[in-house]
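User: Predict structure, ligand zinc ion.
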Amino acid sequence: MIPNLDWLRHAVCAGMDQRAFFATGRHARAQVFAAKRVCDACPVREQCREWAIESGERWGVWGGMSQDELRKKRRRFTSRAKAGTRPAPKKREPAKCGTRPGYQKHLREKTPVCGPCRQANTDADNRLRRTGTSKVLAP
Ligand code: SF4
Ligand SMILES: [Zn+2]
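Assistant: Predicted complex:
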């Protein structure tokens, strides 16, 4: 099933530099804080947060929540899923090279960015310029 991401069109962060939402390095805490303030003004916070929880996003600020906060929510979501009230979120494979998550993994782990990852990140940036968001990480 193709997820419905229409809400992204109303995202306050559309067209913004997405790096603001994927904090790394020394100033990560301040960046996360700033990103959350952007989300505060976003009309699609709820959808964004749900998307992040259900798709198992493991990186970045989504729906005004840091990964720590999302993790707590996710745990609740998963235990509800086990109880049979909601479908279980699919398990994420570790980020593969040649994808934007792969690129972000390099940054996170401070390993040299490989060619395919650099390309994937450039593609995502181009997509961002064209569509106003790079966040469609599917399939
Ligand atoms: S809530 Fe989601 S869509 Fe809205 S600004 Fe924050 S990250 Fe972007
Ligand atoms: Zn790589």
